Amino acid sequence: MTSHDEYVSVRYLVDDVQAAADFYTTHLGFTLNSSAAPAFADVTRGRLRLLLSGPASSGARATPKEAAVAGGNRIHLTYDDLDAEIDRLGGAGLTFRSEVVAGPGGRQILLADPAGNLIELFQPAHRP
Q1: Quick one: what percent of the chain has pLDDT higher than 70?
Q2: What is the side-by-side order of every strand in the sheet holding 8-13?
Q3: What are the CA-CA distances from residue 53 to residues 17, 65, 91 (Å)?
Q4: Which of 3, 46, 69, 89 is the most exposed place for a label (fewest CB within 10 A)?
Q5: pTM, rounded to two decimals
Q6: Read out DSSP for the chain?
Q7: What was the pLDDT predicted at 116?
Q8: Which domains, from first to last, does the chain contain?
Q9: pLDDT tens, 30-52?
């Protein structure tokens, strides 16, 4: 697993990325780090990194329809080698809730904990 101590990342699925980014930055003291609205925005407050994913984002596309509602949020874990992690977890008998989905920010797959809570395993795109 990759060690990223700078932030704790949480993904929220939203229906309007710009409205969500405006809400968090205007009302709750978040700072806009990046935006690719209407698909995605990244805001931070302290060590919390909130990934705001609209319906067109790869994060939302990876989500099963029954989980794509408010409250269908998930923790976001980053890996250097997503394929190796998929092999390791699959070898342990775990079942994934989505296929690998690729987008401009990287690749991801969803796993569920025993209670059904989603965990996003993510490998960032390599930037030149």
Answers
A1: 89
A2: 31-36, 40-45, 48-53, 8-13, 74-78, 118-124, 106-112, 101-103
A3: 7, 15, 30
A4: 3
A5: 0.65
A6: -----S-EEEEEE-S-HHHHHHHHHHHS--EEEEEETTTEEEEEETTEEEEEE-TTSHHHHTS-GGG-STT--EEEEE-S-HHHHHHHHHHTT--BSS--EEETTEEEEEEE-TTS-EEEEEEEPPP-
A7: 80
A8: 8-124 (3.10.180.10)
A9: 899 999 888 899 999 888 898 98
